[in-house]
Each structure stands twice: as C-alpha cells, then as structure tokens.
Amino acid sequence: MNPFKVFVVEDDPFYGEMLKYHISLNPDYVVEKFETGKDFLHNLYKNPSVISLDYSLPDMSGLEVLKKVKEFNPEIPVIIVSGQEDVSTAVILLKEGAYDYFVKDDDTKDRIWNALKNIREKVELEKEIDVLKEEIGKKYKFGNIIKGNSPEIKNIFSLIDKAIGTNITVSIAGETGTGKDLVAKAIHYNSPRAKYPYVAINVSAIPKDLIESELFGSEKGAYTGAFTRKLGKFEEAGKGTLFLDEIGEMEMNMQAKLLRVLQERELTRIGGHQLVKVEARILVATNRNLAEEVQKGNFRQDLYYRLLGLPIYLPPLRDRGNDILLLAKHFVDEFCDENGIPKKTISQHAQEKLLGYSYPGNARELKAMMELATVMSNGTVIEETNISYSSPNRSNDFMLDAEDTLVGYNRKIIRYYLDKYDKNIINVAKKLDIGKSTIYRMMKNNEL
Amino acid sequence: MKKMKTQKLYDLSQLIEIVGDEEGLLKMVTIFIESTPRTLDELNENFRNKNFEMVAQNAHKMKASIDMMRVVSLHDMIRKIDKLDKVIENQAELKDIISIVNTKLTQVFAELKKEFAL
After folding, report:
1. Smallest Cβ distance to A21: which of B18, B34, B67?
2. Of A13, A314, A337, B81, which is the most exposed, with the fewest CB atoms less than 10 Å away?
3. Are residues A110 and A167 in the same domain?
4. What's the angle, vertex CA B56, arms to CA B51 and CA B57, rounded to 5?
5. Is-contact A272 A222, C-beta < 8 A?
6. Residue A137 located in a structural domain
C-alpha cells in the first residue's frame, strides 16, 4: 500500500515542527514540511495524500497556493490552518475547494488529527470501490458472461459491441434463464457509463400500485406512509443505466407514464412539482414477444417503438448445439473453483445425455444440473448417472417416450408448457389454445 | 515578591503533551529560540521602516508559537499587533506594545536557554 503522505506547509518553523510531531504520532503517516509556498509547489509532483496549508505564507497567499494545488490535482484534500479568524476568508477558501478551515488554537492539532483520519478512511473506501468496480467490470467482460462458440452467440457479441459504443436503447428478448440480465450488465459495465450506477428493476416483481413510485420516486407525504422523500430508480441510476426487466408485464396506464418520461427525458416524483432530468440509459428485457403483444393490444405501439432500439435476441439453449457442453464444463469448473474441489471432467455418455435434453430453464437450469452432478459424482469424472434433469417431465420428446394414451400425452404437453412458462396458467392456456379452467381442473384433480 | 520572580513566563505542558519525550521537547525548544528571535528582529525592522503591514504579518507568524509555549502575558498583545490596519492611528501605543513584546520574549528566550542548557 502506498504511504499516506501528509505535506505540512507552515512558515513558522516552530509551529510547523509541532504539527509534524503531532501528525507523525500515527506511524502510517509520512510527513514532509515546507516553509514557503514556492518550496512546497516545487514538491507537489510527489502527489501528497493530503496537505495542511497555512493561510499566511511569506511569498504567497494560501488562496494562491490552494488554486495551484487544485489545478495540479483537484482530488488532493487541502486543510487550511490559519491564524485568521475572519469568516469571509474561510468561506472564500472553502468555495475554492478547501477540505476544511481550522483557526490556530489549542484544539487545532486534534481537529487536524480527526480530519486526517476521516480523509484517510474516505481515500481507502474510494480505493476499495475502484477495485470492486474494476472486478465487476472484469466479471462482465463478454467472454465471461456468455460462453459459447455458436454463430448465434458470436452475433450477440457483435450486437453487444454496437450497444456499448452508443447510447441507443437496447431491448433484450429471450426465454427465462437465457441470461438477459447478464447481457444488460455486460453492456453497462463495458460502456462509458460504467462509473455510474447500474440499477435493475423487475417490473413483474413489483406490485402494480407501487411500480410508479419505485420508478419515479415520491415526495414526503405523497401517500399514507410516505414519511420521507424517496428517489425512484430513474434518479438512482443517474447518468448510469436503468435495466427494466420483464417490461412486457407493465400495465397499460403505467406504459403511458413511462412513455411520457422517456419522450420528455424528465419526470416528476409522485406528490411533487419539481421536474427531475432523466439522464440514465435505458435497457429493457422481456420473455414475451412484444410485437405480438402490440398486435393483441396488450402493449402500446408507441412505447414499443420507443423501446425497441437495438434488439438483441438470446436464443434458447436447446438451439445452441455444442454450446451446451461448453457451458456445462464452465459451470462444473466454476463450481469446483468456488468450493475448492479438484476439477472434474464429463464422460462421453454424460455429454450425450446433456445434448438430448430441451432445457426449458435454459442456462440457469443447466447450471443447477451441473452443480448437482458435480456434488453427486464420486471421482474426477461426471457420469451419466450423476445427471438428473431438474424436472423429468420437462422432456419435450413426448413422441419418443413409450407409447401413451391421448390423455397421457395431453398431461405431458401441459406439464411441459407449465414448466417452460414458469407455471403461468393464463399464458399456457393461450399458447395451447385451451381454457385456463381446464388446467386448473387438471391441477385440482392431481392430473398434472 | 520572591515567588513572583521565580514564576515562569512560559508553560511547556501542552508542548510536552504533543512531543512526548525529552528529545522531542529539546528539539522544539531549540527551534523556538532559533526561529522566533529572527521573526522578532524582522518585526522590529519593519516597525522602524513603518512597514506596518509586514509588522502585522510578523506578529501573525509568531502568534501560534507564543500560544503553544503558553506565554500567557503576550496572548492579547501579539493579537493587537496582528490585527493592525495598514493605517496606524496610535503609533505610540504600538511602540509600547512592541517594546513589551520584545522585553518579555527576550526573557523567555533567556529562561529557556537556561532551563535547557542551550
């Protein structure tokens, strides 16, 4: 770790030495002392962590020195230590970016001590944040988020690349578990907005009465229980990225409000009058076919076009051929690393079994399967018997199964669709063009 | 009367609290009796040349050191000089104050030299 360098600029050698003594009581601080502004500025290239600056120097005023420091590096905190008890001087210096202003008295040394402690803690936290941001950035590098060599995946990489270079709205479509959220994160963390927040909200997970305040925020007293002002996700995202997941689930009246905000690029918190600028980049995702939803009248056409931007479609895992094996190996390796167990391979028979499944839960399901298989396998090879499908009924190879009755096939088909669409009965009923009451009845009779 | 004469013009308790050991204390006292007389000389010279702005600046420079050495008798006087305007209305008063500051500080220097055998 770099030493915490404290520069003391003080024309009175006695007072300067006293400060040096006091600050040096912390063995982590390296203190250098200067008696003139000129001498100090000659040494500024050493980039101190913090500067304690006397306001009255023989050759320059504290204000002049402060300005030069801020020109050199505005991030270096400058504590002004002065005999001047003049408030207006303090105000000017603080406006020019001084960290704090202390009048020389009996408490000065303690104030400096505390200020240094606070600055150091802040610097360390900022460093930690930088490191973490860098790590997140690495985590969401293309190659780390979506594994695959299939042409479909290579095409997705090229689309993500295009999305990163511009501010275009991106709409990500794909079945559940295909990694829509990971694509959104990859776009954010590889774009110039990476230094700003990434805020994600799952529209379907928020009760419809709360979605407006979640998105746009609310003022104190806007509704019963609004005890304080609450910032919405748009404001939280600031100049970063707002990811609206499951946008297809949004109700029509909320769609109208969202459209207005996206068009005007400004919003008003619930119960407020002040206009708040919207600067966040918008990414949306859905597992529905939005174009179809527009035709059915469930989604506003104007909002659809506003959100469409650059469409990225994530193909289901079953259509990605050998990517299944590549991903399976990746999940096994990752699980072994995380749990500190030796690497395992996947036997030929196990690979064949993996390729013969439909993965309604896509990569998410494969990950769970491979983690379980890794745990279940005894040696260094994952065998066919270690692999069990999350739901044996999920196979869509209905016809390949042993012969069955029509009723039996009906059950299998409905079970398959229920699994595929997350037990959304209304959706399944629509897909199969049957009444939802049929499904409810079959469930009630334990036929499914 | 005898007791009054033996009372020190300074109090090193605050300085001891900061520097902690004998060696540090000796170093700080040495710096004080080397640097402060130089500033005092500058102040006298500037006063002679009627450069009152510099007189105030010199006093300002010495103020924190005098406080740190707890020379209580000069606490108010050094501040009066520090707060001088460029135009001095009562030069006689200023002359008196500077004279007292000189006397007291000279005494302080002598006493410190004696105490620390410098």
Report:
1. B18
2. A337
3. no
4. 95
5. yes
6. no
A105 Cβ under 8 Å from any chain B Cβ:
yes
Q: What is the C-alpha separation between B78 and B56, in angstroms, rounded?
A: 9
State the ipTM, two decimals: 0.81
Read off the tokens for A251: 């109700």
Give the structural domain span for A436.
398-444
Q: Give helix then strand counts, H and E, for chain A.
A: 19, 16
Show pLDDT as tens, one digit a residue, over chain A (448 residues). 568 999 999 988 999 999 998 898 888 999 999 999 999 999 999 999 999 999 888 889 889 999 999 999 998 999 999 887 778 888 899 999 999 999 888 788 889 999 999 999 998 898 888 888 877 777 777 666 677 778 888 888 889 989 998 889 999 999 888 889 889 998 998 899 988 999 999 998 888 888 999 999 998 887 777 778 889 999 999 999 999 999 999 999 999 999 999 999 999 999 888 899 999 999 999 988 888 899 999 999 999 999 989 999 998 988 888 889 989 999 999 999 999 999 999 999 999 889 888 888 898 899 999 999 999 998 899 998 898 876 544 455 555 555 677 888 888 888 888 877 777 888 889 889 898 888 888 877 777 7
- B65 in A contact zone (CB under 8 Å): yes
Encoded tokens for A215: 């998105």
CB A226 within 8 Å of CB A176: no
| A326: in domain | yes
Which residues on chain B are in Cβ contact (under 8 Å) with A17? 27-28, 31
Q: Which residues does residue A243 pair with via DSSP β-bridges, in sequence order?
A: A200, A283
Q: Check residue A410 and give left, alpha or beta (phi > 0: left; psi -120 to 50: alpha).
A: alpha
Query: Is A13 part of the contact surface with chain B (CB cutoff 8 Å)?
Result: yes
Report the chain A residue with the minimal C-alpha distance to residue B31. A14
A285 neighbors A242 (Cβ within 8 angstroms): no
Contacts of A83 in chain B (CB under 8 A): 60, 63-64, 82
Q: Please tell me whether residues A177 and A239 are part of one structural domain.
A: yes
Give the best residue of B26, B32, B61, B71 to mutate against chain A (max A CB count within 10 A): B61
Are A424 and A360 in contact by the 8 Å Cβ rule? The answer is: no
Q: Taking CB atoms and an 8 Å cutoff, what residues of chain A touch B19?
A: 18, 21
Contact status of B19 with chain A (Cβ, < 8 Å): yes
Q: Does B82 touch chain A (CB under 8 A)?
A: yes
Using a CB–CB cutoff of 8 Å, tell me whether B68 touches chain A: yes
Look up the CATH number of the domain holding residue A403: 1.10.10
B70 inside 8 A of chain A by CB: no
Whether chain B has a CB inside 8 Å of the CB on A11: the answer is: yes
